[in-house]
Amino acid sequence: MNMSIMVFGKNNFIATLPDQIRYATAFSVEIIDNLNQGVSRIQMMPPDIILVQASLDGSIELCSWLNDQTKLSWIYCILFEDRPQQLTDRNKGWHRELEMSATALKQGADAYIWYFIAEKRDYSFTELTANHGLILAQLTVGFRKTQKYRDLIRRNDMLSAIALADSLTELNNRRALEWDLPRQIKKAISQKTWMSLIILDVDHFKKVNDTHGHLVGDRILQLLCKRLRHNLRSQDTAFRYGGEEFVILLADTNDEEAVVVARRLNRVVSEEPFSLSNKLTINITISLGAASLQAEDDDEGVSLLHRADQCLLEAKTAGRNRVIASNYLCHVPHLKAVSS
Length: 340
Description:
Radius of gyration: 31 Å
Strand order of the largest sheet: 7-8-6-11-12-13
Mean pLDDT: 88
Helix content: 40-55%
Strand content: 15-25%
Largest sheet: 6 strands, mixed
Order of helices and strands: EHHEHEHEHHEHHEHHEEHEEEHEE
Shape: elongated
Structural class: alpha/beta
């Protein structure tokens, strides 16, 4: 991703900036000279660096506003001091220069540069070269800060993905469900759409572990999840809730459609044995409970989960290998799990 610079200043200001900025190909430069437009642009598409012309109306306000935006703290703001009075006051002594620099930094700037413009005073070539060198050095600092921020975000995204994923089945884990369920409920309510949920559990899974060992049990869960994923719709999201229990969120799905999804999953699991090797295949079945979002459900999804879980318990009590929903009772012929 290319770096971006927003220049808050007049055209004659950017015309005096170093050629490396004006004719850059490694990053984009946008010029804005209105405070409201600048704020709007930053909110819509934040730049990496902002160069602010101090003499432009709204410059200090922009720095102060940006300083208050905690979510935009990574933007590097450089204030260019070109106001005649401040440039004159600078000559009153080094202590005055330090006071003015401190004030600028408190007002929100990350860097404060005394900007020497040849047209306004007879600066030497050495002075102008040194001033441009300082500007480019501060740009380097800004770009380095931005790159570190991007690297941090990338690492955080990676860590978040790891933290929200179940390492065995590669599904989302319970923590991910606790984050996503309230979000899905809020979306369904705001868009006035249906939402349903399925909880499923592997029948007699303890027998598989006791008979064949936990490694075989883990492999069964992996194959089961692969089969489930291949038979879910694009709007369905599966989570490993714990052990051999799984939750599936069904966006834009009413209670009747949830039953159809649950019956399909029940069927694709029970109809074909799981082959672990040439010598070992295992038949398993699953029990499923389904529930749909109701007006009285809480925003966190606790009541919705509880209702689906009660249906799951009822399915197990009724003989397993079946689907039971809040408003529907769907029995599937029971297939006893066997191994060969």
